[in-house]
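User: Here's a chain of 343 residues. Predict its fold as tokens.
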Amino acid sequence: MTQTRRSFLQSAAALAGSTAFLGSYSGLARAETAITGVNYLPPSYKALSFGAAGFVERLNAADAVSVDYYDSGKLLKADEQLPALRAGTIDFMFHTSSYITRSIPILGITGMPGVVEALHKNPDRLKKGSPLFNLINEELAKEGLHMVSMMGNVLEPEYIWSTAAAPVKSIADIDGKKIRVVSFEATQVIENLGGAAVRIPSSELYLALQRNTVDAAVANISTIIGRSLQEQLAYVYKLPLTAYGIGLFVTTSRWADMADNEKVAFEDASAWFDENGAAEANNKIYPDEFWPAIKAAGIEVIEPTAEDLLALEEASVSVRDEWIAQVGPEVGERAIALALGAN
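Assistant: Prediction complete.
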């Protein structure tokens, strides 16, 4: 289906009225319901697009629905997706949690420094139906949102990747450096450690590194490979500074109005996404393909010292305290405890 964003948005109200998103006639036989989903990530992000593409393929194969799916920002840019979902002009979206933690604070748990390494190493803590997953959805429901899945886990942490001209090989090296970030959590930590945080979209990062607009970048390895940034980099300092997952979101009203057979199709496809999305990236693509590619590119890998990990923990305290104040002490402290393995 070929459709411009303008024509889609102009016809969205009529579409919503005629289909009533998955219809209100769950007891009657009817044709497949057409639904629209978006993802701003391009297929070149192999590890990130694998799960989303698999979900859409399985959902589209169900008899209940037919899916119009737009990746690579073809319909909506990253910053436009959440408003469009809330407005009802799209039916579901995939979104990296790091981009929307300021709009949806509870998702900050997926990027919380001092917590993300524990989440990454223990995927059961964020799977569908886990206590942490359910707590996140309780908070999302207050904003009219529902997370169908967070791809089963967060992805491997984001590390600090730097150029030959401005190496970052330790905590001390962060001081005075211009470092690209995305999330609020990463911004706060970098600033606490003396760096200058610069928000730059991944699509502009290659030139920013090439022209020395920034000295380094906080990034997941998917961004490095997906944007060929290894061509501009010399070092990766594996400080587990932050992380993110890719959430599959609908609104609570859409979810409630979904007919039984359509909800079954959604749940079946999302169960596959939850089981395979992060696992494929973390356990196969990263160790078998991406890290060997980094090694082949000649990038030096530096592991953090115990002293540096302690310094990160100290710099993270104020970030966690501010986040707990945002979401409320009861919710924030409970979420962190669950992420760290409490029952």
